[in-house]
Amino acid sequence: MLIVSLKLWKKEWKCCADTPQYSHVLLPLKMTINERQEQLLKDLSLFQDWTERYEYVISLGRQLNEMPPESKTEDKLIEGCQSQVWLEAYFEDGGVHYRADSDSQITKGMIALFIHFLDGESPENILTADFAFIEKTGLKEHLAPTRANALNLMAIQMKQRALDFTGAPD
Amino acid sequence: MLIVSLKLWKKEWKCCADTPQYSHVLLPLKMTINERQEQLLKDLSLFQDWTERYEYVISLGRQLNEMPPESKTEDKLIEGCQSQVWLEAYFEDGGVHYRADSDSQITKGMIALFIHFLDGESPENILTADFAFIEKTGLKEHLAPTRANALNLMAIQMKQRALDFTGAPD
Amino acid sequence: MSSYDVSAVRSGFPILQHEVHGKPLVYLDNAATSQKPEAVLEVSRHYYERLNSNIHRGTHHLAQEATAAHENARELIARHLNASSAEEIIFTSGATDGINLISSTLGYSGKISPGDVIAISNLEHHSNTVPWQMLCDRSGAVLEVIPVTEEGAIDPVDFDHLLEKTSGRLKVLALTHISNAFGTILPLAQMIESAHRAGALVVVDGAQAVPHLSVDVQKLDADFYVFSGHKVYAPTGIGVLYGKHSLLEELPPWRGGGEMIRKVSYDGTTFNDLPYKFEAGTPNIEGAIALAAALNFLNELGLQNVSNHENAMIRRAADALTSIRGLILYGPSDRSGSLSFNIDGIHHYDLGTLVDKMGIAVRTGHHCCQPLMTRFGITGTLRASFGCFNNEEDVDRLAEAVEKGVEMLR
Amino acid sequence: MSSYDVSAVRSGFPILQHEVHGKPLVYLDNAATSQKPEAVLEVSRHYYERLNSNIHRGTHHLAQEATAAHENARELIARHLNASSAEEIIFTSGATDGINLISSTLGYSGKISPGDVIAISNLEHHSNTVPWQMLCDRSGAVLEVIPVTEEGAIDPVDFDHLLEKTSGRLKVLALTHISNAFGTILPLAQMIESAHRAGALVVVDGAQAVPHLSVDVQKLDADFYVFSGHKVYAPTGIGVLYGKHSLLEELPPWRGGGEMIRKVSYDGTTFNDLPYKFEAGTPNIEGAIALAAALNFLNELGLQNVSNHENAMIRRAADALTSIRGLILYGPSDRSGSLSFNIDGIHHYDLGTLVDKMGIAVRTGHHCCQPLMTRFGITGTLRASFGCFNNEEDVDRLAEAVEKGVEMLR
Ligand SMILES: Cc1ncc(COP(=O)(O)O)c(C=O)c1O
Ligand SMILES: Cc1ncc(COP(=O)(O)O)c(C=O)c1O
After folding, report:
1. Contact yes or no, A with D (3+ CB pairs under 8 Å)
2. A107 at the D interface (CB within 8 A)?
3. Which of D409, D345, D355 is nearest to D382 (CA)?
4. Chains with ≥3 CB–CB distances under 8 Å to D
5. C-alpha distances out from residue D402 to A108, D323, D328, Å
6. 390-409 in D: which are within 8 Å (CB) of A?
7. Given phi > 0 = left and psi -120 to 50 = alpha, else beta, which region is D243?
8. Exposure pattern of D11-37 as b/e (b: 16+ CB <10 Å)?
């Protein structure tokens, strides 16, 4: 029947992004966004259970630098989250870079995923990036649905920020 | 469980009395109120089905005189009924007499029952009359519950009117 | 009609499998409230057995599932009414609650001033009358009433006359889509267009329309549209208010509490976005989900099939009753949902009582339309009102019972 | 406790027979909404299968049966709260709706003037905060807040101070009976007495009390008392407002529509008596009947037995958690219903997410008490809240899950 679907209502869930320094520590920069997504899918499939998946996500968050308190200003705060998220983007060396932070470790880990996909890419690449992988990772099943939806919204927020730099010289 | 009971809420049902001239046509006056009630119980037990019971009640109503239109004034109207009911009482020959009318034939028949019990009795007798018979007649089952409850309320209204004449000389 | 298998439909309604007064129930009181199909009862039960949890803001699994189900229900309802987005669908406790939400927030908004006009029709249910009287009382606005013709319909000339008379002052027009007392379908599209030209907002009371018609709020161009779940095969205690996004945005919130806020502090509280701004407190979660299931149920039958079938039953009933001496039928001949009548010289309450004793549930009285009854100089009518499960036998038993009742009373 | 057979109680809850994330559900979110026992689900279903009909004013058999069931429910609820009559019991759609009914009609009544004071406590749920803020906005009254101590309780000295400060101006005191965030039980009887001496009306938010305490509105001398059905084992979409008869009489109606009127005419409409004056439109008939069934269910278990059992579970949980480094417990030690906590350095949302993955439903966040969170300098807590069916295994699995979650996050 109509009952069980993960499609969540949009407005309630304008949730939960956070970003660190750009950190191509984990995935080589030269890969395309798509290739990096494929890589993640492979990585995730290696995990036995949800505990490992969460620990992976938390560890990603740990590897990211904290945002200095003075950067955590109101204008960077994304409202409506269970956790607080600060997100900012800047343009450098022909690519968009993100900085973000969160008081939640899991949220922080999740935004780290996105950073790995997007950091340093051109605004155009970011804006056209296909996030269908979110559906494919199985992360949605293994994250709480609010979190899963937060992934979508984080993606939207990051594209939003990239919009400011379209047409910038690379 | 708690569901099926005929006990109805009081306020909604302040219903449905009507009275004609006093008409001891049907039951001899010398019987006490209780005896007349017993008689009714016997009469009702003779009927085969609800149709006959209803026809009996309707026929009682038919035998009562109509109230003249000019007597049907606002102050005699009992509010809150599906049917309109006018009720008045007067004191004569040492007893309380009722006049009533209704635009509903069934209501009219029901009030005719009460008239037969009460008409001509002293205020004291009326006020102390035991209407437990209402429960016993089976009329409640064979009348719609609103009607059944209306019986209670009619009784109350008639006692109410009799109150005015307590202490009157007989 | 050939494609409509009414006996299959009947078998989906548990209550029809039981007897009343020792006879199979003939339920012809659908305009008061509809019976519930197994398909809906099952969804309610499934909700409580598998999903029940308070929605929004919950991290845990059940809370997420329940939230998803609730918001899916909202989307389904939005699609059913062709709203432009699910944010335009506000859950209420019923049609009455929805109308009061609009009348009260219009009152608080300061948009209604002394001398302004609020217009309704003489066909309106008390629920689409009293809230406007109360708003007039509070704001100093004036209530104007579009008269009904002898046939129980609205004459466009009368409406034009009202528009002229109230020119520049008409702020709100509140109209029923279908009259619950007489089954009259109002020519809403034209009336709404004229009202908009006159600068008025239009509130439509769709309580009797949603069970019988496919409603397209955008095509109608209604500003607000309300209905009740319990009249459309869903449980009691749930209803819907549709409102145009921009208009809902302009109105202040009504009830305050959880859910409808963004941030509460003693220095100042900010309110949530639509639709939550108007949904304070824990909603009727199960009701919303079951309402969506009920609309699904109707859509699976096909609303057009259902209304074709119902209309055939209503015509059959009207035909069968005309043989009774003294029959007075109310409303136009293309009535929908309800058939209202009286028998000359017989009180509707008496006849209704006897008809009920024969196992036929019809409604007697003023149908919460006292001003309409007053207009016709009556205190009430008998009303048989139809649903997707009524069949020819129901109609025939109704006609038979009415005849027999009339006999007893004559 | 020996007499309380929790495993028998559990077997009456269908949802507990199912798994979440492949594990038996540990449901510790009862303060958000309770699960429903078969005894209640069965009554709802029975209503729709045997009785369903619109109530009041119907002549026919089903209408009468449904009316009787609905009004019996009202009487049972009146007895449960020890109201002096069933006319003091108004059905609402929930606690939030009930508080708004009072705050809105007080607003319309003209009893609240600029400069008057409305007082709440710092423990209040948004639903007992925002309606009063809105009333202040509309009336020019001033909102005053009774502070809470570090322990999450109210110091009588603070309350006395507030009474002094607002002397002669205090019109309304709105207090929760039990804090949903911290489980604090308020010393209502004394506070109500003082407030009455100061000339104020007292509105009690009993949403968290009715599931756990035997409430006697006359003994408390509360002027108004509200609660929600869905938190006390009944369906969503139903609630109760108790009000003293004379006070309810004085207030104007709120929603207009069917049921709440005596007579509607365009010349003037008169309103119905209590309780109907405040019940416009078709009520949540099934909800009311199921709510009475839920209170029956609780009474059969014995409210005192239930709360003894729950309190033992809460103490067990508090004890089990204290072994975790950095545990911060909120609220006094004699808390009722809810146990709220944080772990130093760990975000409640993170911990809640992990705990949920282990099949434990607890709530994280501000629990609709942002001002209270602000007072404690936090954005939220984890809250485990208990019902009649929670057992020692639930508590042990909670403690285990929290420990494991903390490990993962450290
Ligand atoms: C103390 C308290 N008051 C009021 C409410 C609001 O109840 P509802 O959302 O059922 O209207 C709640 C429930 O969240 C509560 O815990
Ligand atoms: C036309 C119309 N409007 C409004 C209502 C009120 O609906 P509810 O009582 O469900 O709020 C009804 C139902 O009685 C109705 O028929």
Report:
1. yes
2. yes
3. D355
4. A, B, C
5. 20, 11, 13
6. 408-409
7. beta
8. ebbbbbeeebeeeebbbbbbbbbbbbb
Any CB–CB contact under 8 A between B39 and chain C?
no
What are D227's strand-pairing partners?
D240
Percent of chain B with pLDDT over 90: 4
Spatial contact of D220 and D204, defined as CB atoms under 8 Å apart: yes
ipTM of the complex: 0.88
Which residue among C93, C96, C179 has the greatest number of ligand 2 atoms within 8 angstroms of its CB, and so is best to mutate? Answer: C96
Three-state secondary structure readout of chain B: CCCCCCCCCCHHHCCCCCCCCCCCCCCCCCCCHHHHHHHHHHHHHCCCCHHHHHHHHHHHHHCCCCCCHHHCCHHHEECCCCCCEEEEEEEECCEEEEEEEECCHHHHHHHHHHHHHHCCCCHHHHHHCCCCHHHHCCHHHHCCHHHHHHHHHHHHHHHHHHHCCCCCCC
- The residue-averaged pLDDT of B78-103 equals 83
Separation between Cα atoms, residue C331 and residue C394, nearest integer Å: 21
Q: How many CA atoms lie within 13 A of C303 on its CB side?
A: 18
User: How far apart are alpha carbons D279 and D269 in whole angstroms?
Assistant: 16
Which chain C residue is nearest to residue B144, measuring alpha carbons?
C353
Cβ distance of A7 and C68 shorter than 8 Å: yes
Nearest-CA residue for ligand 2 atom 14 is: C32
- Could you give the CA distance from residue B11 to residue B156 in angstroms, rounded to a whole number? 13
Which residue of C lies nearest to D360 if distances are taken between CA atoms? C60
Q: Per the structure block, which two tokens stand in for C38?
A: 């197994």
Q: How far is C336 from chain B (nearest CA, A)?
A: 25
Segment D179-218, tens digit of pLDDT: 999 999 999 999 999 999 999 999 999 999 999 999 999 9
B/C interface, count of CB pairs below 8 Å: 37
Kindly state the tokens that stand for D347.
Answer: 């975000």
Quick one: which H or E segment has residue D71? helix D61-81
* 3+ Cβ–Cβ pairs closer than 8 Å linking B and D: yes
10-residue mean pLDDT series, chain C (410 residues): 85 93 91 98 97 82 90 97 98 98 98 98 98 98 98 98 98 98 98 98 98 98 98 98 98 96 94 95 98 98 98 98 97 97 95 91 95 97 98 98 96
Three-state DSSP at D385 gives strand
Residue from A1, A3, A140 to probe the interface with C (highest C Cβ count within 10 Å): A3
The amino acid sitting at A167 is G
Average pLDDT over residues A103-119: 85
Chain C residues within 8 A of B60 when measuring between CB atoms: none
Q: Do D357 and A50 touch (CB under 8 A)?
A: yes
Q: Is C51 helix (H, G, I), strand (E, B) or coil?
A: helix
C388 belongs to the catalytic site:
no
- Report whether the peptide linkage leading into residue D275 is cis, meaning its omega lies within 30 degrees of zero: yes
* D48 CB within 8 Å of a chain A CB: no
Does pLDDT of B20 surpass 50? no
CB-defined site of ligand 1, < 6 Å: C 258, 281-282; D 31, 94-96, 125, 127-128, 176, 180, 205, 207-208, 228, 230, 368
Alpha-carbon C272 to chain mean position? 28
Separation between Cα atoms, residue A102 and residue C280, nearest integer Å: 29
Q: Which positions ≥6 away from A28 have C-beta within 8 Å?
A: none
Q: Is D364 within 8 Å of chain A by CB? A: yes
Query: What is the per-residue pLDDT across D251-297, written as a single tens digit (0 to 9) for each?
Result: 999 999 998 998 999 999 999 999 999 999 999 999 999 999 999 99
Peptide bond into C275 cis (omega under 30): yes
Average model confidence (pLDDT) across chain A = 71
Decide the pairing of beta strands D170-176 and C381-385: unpaired
pTM score of the predicted model: 0.91
The residues facing C330 across adjacent strands are C340
